[in-house]
Automatic annotation (TrEMBL):
This is histidine kinase. Residues 198-263 form the Signal transduction histidine kinase subgroup 3 dimerisation and phosphoacceptor domain. GO terms for molecular function: kinase activity. It comes from Nonomuraea insulae. Keywords: ATP-binding, Kinase, Membrane, Nucleotide-binding, Phosphoprotein, Transferase, Transmembrane, Transmembrane helix, Two-component regulatory system.
Amino acid sequence: MTELRGDGAPTHEYRWALPSVLLGDPGEGRVRRSTRDWIVDTVMFLFACGLTFLSLIELQDQHQPEPLLAVEQVTGALSCASVWLRRRWPVGLAVVLAVLSSYLELVGGASVVALFTVAVHRPFKVSGPITLLNLITLAPYVALRPQSDLDRGWTAALGTAIVLTVFAWGIVARARRQLVWSLRQRADSAAEEAKRLERERIAREMHDVLAHRISMLSLHAGALEFRPDAPPAEIARAAGAIRTNAHLALQDLREVIGVLRHSAPAGDDVVPDRPQPTLADLPALVEECRQAGMVIHLDLRADGAPEGLGRNLYRIVQEALTNARKHAGDVPVTVAVEGTRGKGLSVEVRNALQARYGSRIPGAGAGLIGLTERAELAGGRLEHGATPEGEFLVRAWLPWPVEATQEDDA
């Protein structure tokens, strides 16, 4: 999670995306100003000059000594010019102007701008003491430079109100900017999380589809390897199945890569996902495996399941049959699907533990882990392993809400 620095600026990648006027990071060394920075600094400079000019008019009406008036004018002009340094040395500038304002009146406008800058761009542990210093310097100013129209009490009260108002305004501006940075950070984090989840979904689809196709290729290739004397018709059928599954695997891979590479221009519609299998496609999957030489008994006693629910169950059966081809050879497989609305949808895939070790297709076990995650994400459960009867069992249950419809995509 991105941390905010003491000046309220983000610590890393979010920094480049924010205008420098929002960052307000005086930093150290040379400061590069954007167009907005120049506008803001110009407004601050004119504001300080305006306050200084108003104070100068009032000072002339008080008939101050000429030497003091000359010092006031020089320091007032320099303090207004120093406003342009507020981004580079905000704390130092605020301290110097606060000390000068303890006696000189025409530095008051620039001192207000410097205090506001520190309150916006520095934490309370820095801006608080600077504000306290400004309040302390009111005492010698009130004692040494009494106003003709106001007594000392009203002068102190007015000065205190101005300092606290400027400080509070800066604190509010700082809190608002930190809130904006936090919201942007959360939005960026949410976008990254969405991208990660989408990549994981695509990776699961790639594994489910390609593992099925490649296992079919391996099965037919193994048949050609161990039956070189098979009849020409059977060899031709196996070669045709290899070509078909290789073509389908390449097509599936091309579609997935196309999704990963796709970047829709502004205003264009997002490329839709290719049609996903549902529970109605399960008999076609079983028939495809039968043509590859597997012996499968399908008991399907469920109909009308929502698309998302049917897709999850289809992928579970597909991966279970893929594992059966990898590790159990020609052993018969039983697939039982049963479910009704409101009670859930369950599936059991069983096969005897009679592996052909000489032709076993390698696997890392990631498929069963992925199936477990898929079932849990859908709100269901999945268990697998050997049974006391000497079978390997994959059993899954997925929730089927009463209010679910055929168009629902869980």
